[in-house]
Amino acid sequence: MTTPRSRTPFLLPVLLPLSMLLVGATACGGSEPAKPLAEKAEKLEIEKPKAAGTMKFTVDPASSTLGFAMDAPVEKIRGKVPAAATTGVVYADLDDITKSTALIHVDIHELELFQQVQGEDGAFGEEVKQPTQNEHARQWLEISEDVPEDIRKKNELIEFSLASIKDASAASVNALEGDSRTVTFTATGEFLLHQRKAQKDAKIEATFTYKDGKPVSVTVKTVEPLSITLDEYDVRPRKGFGVLAAKTLDALAPKVAKDAEVSVEFTATLDPDAAMPESKAEGAKPAGPGAGLDEAKAAEGDAKADANASE
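The chain above was modelled as a monomer; its predicted structure follows.
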């Protein structure tokens, strides 16, 4: 009787080339695995002001613009939110800009998307608003009308909390000259979207306006868009609340991009009670996070009351 031989020697010629092929595909930049989901969170906190004399600037909603771009090979998408959607505060140390902190809120309740499609000649057509595409975007973000109100309100909030600054073009704004003083830097902080947060870097330009030698406002804008991977924030194709669509982001390529490039610009004006008292520099209350103007104003009122009480 013949003893059965192991099949391993016969499988090696097949398995070995296959494993080498898979390794080679990965090394050559094959399909990248999705990023792990960012940490769950409903809101962000502002870092405490790091020095006495830190000045508080409040965002002027009317001055703000926020949008994002998703550029796929055959389709370009632009997202826009109204100016009044952006609120927040900036605590700026004008003697050492690296000690500044900020918390910016954006309400995407009225988010609108516009689309450009590539024609047969390779050129992109006119930018238009497609109702169906807007409906799909709201489903992906879980801010559509079928989402329970409490969850929808949380998902409508985008935030960025500035924690640290590096590579500043100038440390002291006060040491610069003129009525318009510009500094550039890399801002590091947490970005909140779809109730998830992750640390991100953003290249920022901040232009401080002075009058009679004193600061009155600062205009902040992104020098380069902030890149946000949709998978990381659990922003995925959905066909209803809690129901994922059959097609994934990978399946929708090259029509839909997997990343959104976020750009922002706003002007913040100096508060009348601008300087943080020394006793409050490390223990100042954070400006309470919130997407709406009412919450932002309430938080600013609390901070102002604390400052007045300490005088």
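The radius of gyration is 24 Å.
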